[in-house]
Specification:
The chain is mainly α and 169 residues long. It has seven helices and no strands.
Length: 169
């Protein structure tokens, strides 16, 4: 495979992984099939150490390892797909685990630009308790904060959360 074809394969794989991650996050992790693992990530009392939700990362790591193994047996395409999946995993770790959820030994909150938008979008994802009416399921691409606020307002999810908190107080 040519250098340009390899680079294009990696870039397209990262883009496809964002679509895959969005879909898995929205319809599996927040659905009845995958909420058992993902719920740990939405619990407010976790300590940011390993959580059951991290098993999703293991699943994608296994996919990447299998692709690398197939690539090592002679498939250039499988090898570069594995590189793309791995690159996406590193981007995910940096943006989601590190930046947004502070799983680094230091805290950094971006003040502007792309990183701020990703940070705010994912924090808004966690503004709703439970798996219903959440917004922003992507990890690299984030909708505008204004559109997410409007979506939350339309759903009434934040109002329901406040009413539930008031009843429990």
């Amino acid at each position: 495979m040519s250098t340009w074809a390899a680079i294009l394969t990696v870039i397209l794989t990262v883009a496809a992984m964002e679509l895959t991650a969005y879909s898995v996050h929205r319809w599996i992790m927040h659905g009845p099939l995958g909420w058992g693992w993902h719920k740990s990530h939405h619990d407010e009392d976790h300590d940011h150490a390993l959580e059951k939700n991290d098993l999703y990362g293991v699943v994608f790591a296994v996919i990447s390892i299998v692709l690398f193994a197939i690539g090592a047996m002679g498939s250039d395409l499988a090898w570069w797909l594995a590189v793309g999946v791995t690159c996406y995993g590193l981007i995910y770790y940096f943006l989601h685990d590190g930046l947004v959820h502070g799983r680094w030994p230091f805290r950094y909150v971006p003040k502007r630009g792309y990183l701020r938008r990703v940070y705010q979008a994912h924090r808004m994802h966690h503004a709703v308790h439970g798996r219903e009416n959440c917004v922003s399921f992507g990890f690299i691409w984030a909708p505008s904060v204004d559109s997410l606020k409007a979506e939350l307002k339309r759903s009434g999810a934040l109002l329901k959360d406040r009413e539930g908190a008031d009843r429990n107080a």
